[in-house]
């Protein structure tokens, strides 16, 4: 960060009483950048000495960094990204990044879900930008601060493994798909990101369904996490009279195709664990463009910021514990900008599929419990609101996803520096 530390101290001393959320965020960002700067100073200190490196402090404000002989030994080494140690550190960094990002935008996330799922109590707020603030005020007036974070416990339970798996998977897929600078193409980056997103969703999707159902409920007496899980597990669609007798339906079916379709509906599980995967196919379809474009945009923006014409304004010195061939870390504003751009671009392209997925996930809580397919859900949304229905809540989506992606990528990159990977 380009702001001088002494200037920050003078500013704080001049206005001690007013400590805003922005001030706290700025202080946290400055602290994390300080870790990177002080770690990089260890390199300069070692380089300035003779061949026997002197001792360098092993911690910066309580966070460990490489020091002395360890710094000189680790710096310049090529890290084995397939090692268990690397994957554990990368997973820890990714999980912490996901939790930090989700906590930042938790109230906006709940409002967006209420808008997307067509909750009748909040439908009146979806037509304007100020509706977001009014919806937040409505939730706060009725349920207090805890109402703004309803479902957040389930969010953290889901987001930690989701983010950890996503970042670990991306690093692993990159090493297989992009083996050198000559392979660093936009298609390979997109493919690595898409595969990482699909992998993380596969393992964590049931937790996402639980989170959405918790956020969807707005009754005075809301269900607990256990109650929600029990409800989802036991939900079963209502059987229409024509399909009440499966054997008769098969006997009356015309043609092999119709008979096969009827038989498939009969043998498909109607309750149980399958209910935790409502909207899964749509999620995969949406995750491929979202995760692929998100990682592609972030990495491309990072390359632009690191070009010779910009690097003195956008990068920090290389830390002492930096592995070989790792690019120089970006300054806070540049890293946050790269992350924010990645979230905005990815959100725009994948948003219609996200709206369809949300409607499918709450299918057991509204209507007759009929499990809608992708085409049926899309048709229902189009009949209700037209083409604009696929972009309901997109404005709050931008407000949420830009800081979400920015904080996520920023925290992940800074944690990687702290963990020496």
Low-confidence stretches: 1-22, 42-74, 239-244, 259-269
- Measured on Cα atoms, how large is the radius of gyration? 25 Å
Strand arrangement in the largest pleated sheet:
1-2
Question: How far is the N terminus from the C terminus?
Answer: 22 Å
| Average pLDDT over all residues | 75
Number of helices: 17
Shape: globular
Strand content: under 5%
SSE pattern: HHEEHHHHHHHHHHHHHHH
What percentage of residues falls in helices of 4 or more residues?
55-70%
What is the tally of beta strands?
Answer: 2
What is the structural class?
A: mainly alpha
Largest sheet descriptor: 2 strands, antiparallel
Describe this protein's structure.
With 421 residues, this protein is mainly alpha-helical. It has 17 helices and two strands. The protein has helices at residues 5-14, 21-48, 68-74, 84-104, 106-116, 130-143, 145-148, 152-177, 186-216, 225-234, 246-252, 255-267, 280-305, 311-314, 332-361, 374-385, 394-419, and strands at residues 59-60, 63-64. A two-stranded antiparallel ribbon has the order 1-2. Strand 1 and strand 2 form a beta hairpin. Helix 8 packs antiparallel against helix 9, helix 11 runs antiparallel to helix 12 and helix 13 (280-305) runs antiparallel to helix 15. The chain is globular, with a radius of gyration of 25 Å. Mean pLDDT is 75; it is low at 1-22, 42-74, 239-244 and 259-269.
Give the key terms.
single chain; 421 residues; mainly alpha; two-stranded antiparallel sheet; 2 strands; disordered N terminus
